[in-house]
Amino acid sequence: MASDLIHVDDNGVLTLTLSTAAAGTSLDHGLVLEARDTLRAVVRGAIDADAVLLRGDGKNFCAGGNVAKFGSADDRSDYLRGLADDLHSAIGFLYETQLPVVAAVKGWAAGAGMSLVLHADVAIGGPATKMRPAYPGIGLSPDGGMSWQLPRVVGAARARYIIMTDQILDADQALSMGILSEIVDDDAVEQSAYDLAAQLAAGPRGSHRAIRTLVHESATRSLTDHLAAEAATIAGLSVTAEGVEGVDAFLAKRKADYRGVR
């Protein structure tokens, strides 16, 4: 990992900073590539991490793609296809890590920034947090998985309405729709998101992976098949070191030490 904006700390939190104050906190292509390579290393076991924190290093989480670079590209189609492919590769590896993902959504999350928020398991914002699809405003269509994920969060009809009319969602609206998980004071967004990521990092890896997998796959399974998957998963986890530690700690009325049994 070449940048201090992308790193794993002693708590097992992999911080991925995807925008900076430069260029109006637009999505930084270089950081996207670094995040992709880092997540791929996690998948391959070359880097050890227990949770992921998505953040921006400016006043906004991410204000979307760098439209000025779109306009100056010699071949806009080729340029945008490359950007989309790189972002989508990073998102694919994010899912493949099977790690819990927390987003610190301060300020604006627009365009690809809003797409990234939708891929977090938990998204924490503040009263000043705002979201906007932004794509129709420049005559383009979504990327970053927005048109796949948003319908799963708010429903297809509402997703079409939000994207096609380029709705600006304030924090309360995003919370009520389930896009944000919690609203805290604006100056506490970063720390609250990090603290939660650290809490999840100290928790049971197997349980978190199973929860993410079960929830994601529930949309394409019948109830009967899903109940079978739940039964197999809980039985399998019960004999893992973390499963044994969790039950034993509960019976002994002590806090489980999941890191100690990894």
From TrEMBL:
A Gene Ontology MF term for this entry? catalytic activity
The UniProt entry, under InterPro entries, shows: ClpP/crotonase-like_dom_sf, Enoyl-CoA_hydra/iso
Q: What is this protein called?
A: Enoyl-CoA hydratase
Organism of origin: Gordonia phthalatica
